[in-house]
Amino acid sequence: MLDLILAVAHHILIFSLFGVLFAEFLLVRPGLDPAAVRRIAAVDLWYGITAGLIIVIGFSRALFAAKGWLYYSHNFFFWAKMGTFALIGALSAWPTIRYLRWRREGFIPDADDVIRVRQFLWAQVALFPLLLISAAAMARGYGEML
Question: What is the CATH number of domain 2-139?
Fold first, then answer.
C-alpha cells in the first residue's frame, strides 16, 4: 500500500508542478503592476514548495517502495529524469530571483525583463515532456545499466 500511496502522491505533485509553472507563464507578461508581481511571487513560492515535496516523495519511492534503490540507481532513465528535473530547477532560479527583486523593490519590470523571464519559463515547460518520457521508459524497465 505504501508503494501506491507514494506513487499517487508523486504523480499528483508532478502534474501540480506543471500547473503552477504554467500559471506563472500565464501571469508573467508585459505591463505588470505591483499587485500582479505579488501574485506571481506567491505562485512561485508554491512552485518551490511543490518541487521540494516531489524530491522528498520521489526519493521515498526510490528507497522504500516496491522496486527499491537498486532498480533506480542502475537505470539510465532514472538519472535522465533526475538530470532533467535538476535542469528545470536550475532554470527556475532566474525567474525566482527576478520576482523577489521586483516585489522587494516594488517596481514594474520593463518589457525586456519580462521577456527574459518568460524565456526561462518556456525552457522549463519545454523540458517537462522529457520527465514524462524518462519516467515511462524507466517504469517499463528500459535503461537498465548492469
Answer: 1.20.120
Q: Give yes or no for a contact between 140 and 71, defined as CB atoms under 8 angstroms apart.
A: no
What's the number of CA atoms in the CB half-sphere (13 Å) around residue 139?
10
Higher model confidence: residue 145 or residue 11? 11
List, for residues 22-54, the tens digit of each pLDDT value: 999 999 999 999 999 999 999 999 999 999 999
pTM of this structure:
0.91
Q: Are 54 and 17 in contact (CB under 8 A)?
A: yes
Only one residue has cell 524518462, namely 134
Side-chain half-sphere CA neighbours of 103 within 13 A: 17
Nearest alpha carbon to residue 28 among 95, 105, 104: 95
Place of cell 519511492: 61
CB 91 within 8 A of CB 123: yes
